[in-house]
Amino acid sequence: MSTELSHEARESGIVRTSIIGILANIMLAAFKAIVGLASHSIAVILDAVNNLSDALSSVITILGAKYAAKKPDKKHPLGHGRAEYLSATVVSALVLYAGFTSLVESVKKILSPEAPDYSLLSLAIIAVAVLVKFLLGAYVKKAGEKYNSASLVASGSDASFDAIISTSVLVSALISIFFHINLEAWLGVVIAGFIIKSGIEMLLETVDELLGSRADSDTVYNLRHAILESEKDVLGVYDILLHSYGPDKLVGSVHIEVPDTMTVNELDALERRIAEKIYVEQNILLEGIGIYARNTQSSEVSAIREKVTSLINAHDGVLQVHGLNANTETKVLSFDVILDFAVEDREGLFMQIVQEVHEAYPEYQLKPNLDLDF
Length: 374
What we know:
Layout: H1 3-39, H2 42-68, H3 83-111, H4 120-146, H5 150-179, H6 184-211, H7 217-230, E1 236-244, E2 250-259, H8 264-282, E3 284-294, H9 299-313, E4 318-327, E5 332-339, H10 346-360, E6 365-371
Parallel strand pairs: 2-3, 5-6
Antiparallel strand pairs: 1-2, 4-5
């Protein structure tokens, strides 16, 4: 299947799932609204409002998927895939709004209580709604994972959680009937709290994507090992930096360490092979492949490499030393150091490391670099 066709299949799958969600939530909201108004149940009414917000969320998911599927243009050469993160953010905001609205209405009912009056039919409707929500949640979440859609996964998780909320409403109704204890308003507060919590978690997850979170560890591992296992001339893979331009589009760069005996033509062919392999196999567009040259012909440089690496790795908080290059003629020594973000004073530790290397090789001009742990 071509990449274009897979994008089309993904879009149609997201839209189809969202439409099913819209229809199901509108029907559930209508039935629950009728039951809530007839029985004077604030919990059931809030549950109906929650279903309406879910339907609206599905509409936003469709709009986001449609916009994200637009072809690249001059203003957006990498496409519009990040629109899905924006739609997921809007969905999260709607969930938060529903939660705070539910909280306000529940507090009003605590201050001015009104006893609910359930019929057998209303209980049956609530029970069926619980079952429908459980099935809908599982279906939407599975589809979201299949199509790699953050909006669908969020909607599916929210639907599953709504099913639990509806179950608590049903339990509250049974308690009201058999024990004449009215927990409606208090249950509404609990429901609102969980909705707000869910909305905050969803929002934080999508904001992470927009801010630029660390690439998935499995993705980084697979990329690194694909290069190392396929290219014998590559001695190391470092500085893997990936940017997400949508759930199915990663663009990035990488540094590779190669023997200093390779010619420019050999390097050009190597870079082209790597870029093609990673794009075809992992759908990652490597826009840049940097080069670290390892001196393989000088025992003096090998000794410097071993000593400097050992000296730096002796410090707690050092994650990696790479890109080490010593030019014995110009007396220039370059290296990159990656320090753990947990180190309280990263700059201080880095300066200490540089000083120690300088003391070990005072005749060399140092060109160190404090690299980031991508």
